[in-house]
């Protein structure tokens, strides 16, 4: 038995080869657990950010589609109003031509017609901007670089 104990301290002993392999996992176990917890926390954060991005994208698409519908309804109403205003202007012109109405009445009808036409153009512009925004929130497909390569697009953007 004495010889077995004395053999433990020899360099070719199995104890010298097993000791380093036992040492490393024992002292790294806490660090490994901490690294695992950090990786799991990072993964949970990434999943939460991804879910937030998805929810934000759905909200943006939904808002844009609601706005699109509202603009369509607004344009439909203003188009009907524009038709009525055009009839009013024609009647005012006929009344002025026949001497029944003053020139001021004709100018007032013309001013109302022009104001309504301008309003229709503004709503149509908002519709086009909404269409571009919808394209953008659905994923787009253009980049700023491609827009700047096209001189016509650059002048319209200004």
From TrEMBL:
Gene Ontology MF terms: efflux transmembrane transporter activity
Pfam families for this protein: OEP
Cited SUPFAM superfamilies: Outer membrane efflux proteins (OEP)
Alphabetical list of InterPro entries matching this protein: MdtP/NodT-like, OMP_efflux
Protein name (Swiss-Prot/TrEMBL): Outer membrane protein OprM
Gene coding for it: oprM_12
